[in-house]
């Protein structure tokens, strides 16, 4: 799942390479990606791209006439440049945008179901997922008060709050695992049970993890961002590997419809959480 550090790096590369260019071709290869049927992406033919921005895990292409093409990457969506030979196992291209010069932008989806979505709007807030976004911990103005509003009195697991886009924008399964490991917190502890000192640590881990990851991904070509993300994970995706801190064993645990990873020694006092097969 694309998360804010990789999406920010994607946005910055798009900004460097296609801002100022004019849309000359739009090819929708999978009609289900278009979420604004009365306003298909083809209406942007002839429009000049003015800026590229990020809203949580969404990409916002703003054109000089005020229109926006919002790309919601979903669970498996991503982007690549056209013209290069794709690997045989590369995800299929669902939509292509060609410009007056340079390579086309190809939007892909690697899932068994289409999670990628595009919307043509006059204001990004017309996309409901963006309108509902909470504060972004990558924002320099993100505060402890913003963070406390997400957690105060919540009878919800800490990992779930971190991934709740309406409370904290941009964090998904991978970075929530990394944040919780960094803070040495159990992923299943209820938010309301955390002490002030524990919230202090979790706040620092959240802001630190996201801002440092954005800095680390900056400048990596978009084709290498997923691999860079995987390489930097300390617990996420490291099941049965040794913990980089204590040497214990990283374990899986069942979380909603997916699986997370944690270190029992560092995060749960040795308690083993229910594994996916135990549900």
From TrEMBL:
Residue ranges the record marks as coiled coil: none
Biological-process GO terms, alphabetical: base-excision repair
GO molecular function: 8-oxo-7,8-dihydroguanine DNA N-glycosylase activity; damaged DNA binding; DNA-(apurinic or apyrimidinic site) endonuclease activity; lyase activity; zinc ion binding
Enzymatic reactions: Hydrolysis of DNA containing ring-opened 7-methylguanine residues, releasing 2,6-diamino-4-hydroxy-5-(N-methyl)formamidopyrimidine
Pfam families noted in UniProt: Fapy_DNA_glyco, H2TH, zf-FPG_IleRS
Cofactor: Zn(2+)
Entry keyword Magnesium: no
Family matches, as SMART domains: Fapy_DNA_glyco, H2TH
Protein's UniProt name: Formamidopyrimidine-DNA glycosylase
Lineage: Bacteria, Bacillati, Actinomycetota, Actinomycetes, Micrococcales
């Amino acid at each position: 799942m694309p998360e804010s550090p990789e999406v920010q790096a994607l946005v910055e590369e798009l900004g460097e390479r296609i801002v100022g260019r004019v849309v000359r071709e739009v090819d929708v290869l999978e009609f289900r990606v278009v979420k604004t049927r009365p306003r298909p992406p083809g209406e942007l033919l002839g429009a000049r791209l003015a800026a590229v921005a990020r809203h949580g895990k969404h990409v916002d292409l703003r054109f000089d006439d005020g229109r926006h093409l919002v790309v919601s990457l979903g669970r498996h969506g991503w982007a690549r440049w056209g013209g290069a030979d794709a690997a045989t196992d590369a995800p299929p291209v669902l939509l292509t945008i060609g410009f007056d010069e340079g390579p086309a932008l190809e939007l892909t989806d690697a899932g068994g179901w289409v999670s990628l979505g595009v919307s043509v709007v006059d204001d990004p807030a017309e996309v409901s997922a963006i309108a509902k976004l909470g504060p972004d911990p990558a924002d320099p103005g993100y505060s402890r008060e913003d963070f406390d509003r997400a957690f105060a009195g919540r009878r919800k697991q800490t990992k779930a709050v971190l991934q709740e886009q309406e409370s904290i924008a941009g964090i998904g399964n991978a970075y929530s695992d990394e944040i919780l490991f960094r803070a040495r917190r159990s992923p299943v502890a209820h938010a309301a049970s955390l002490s002030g000192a524990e919230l202090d640590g979790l706040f620092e881990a959240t802001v630190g993890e996201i801002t440092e990851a954005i800095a680390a991904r900056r400048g990596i070509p978009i084709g290498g961002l997923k691999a860079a993300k995987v390489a930097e994970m300390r617990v996420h995706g490291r099941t049965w590997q040794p913990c980089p801190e204590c040497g214990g064993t990283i374990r899986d645990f069942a979380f909603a419809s997916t699986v997370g990873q944690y270190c029992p020694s560092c995060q749960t006092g040795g308690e083993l959480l229910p594994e996916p097969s135990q549900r």
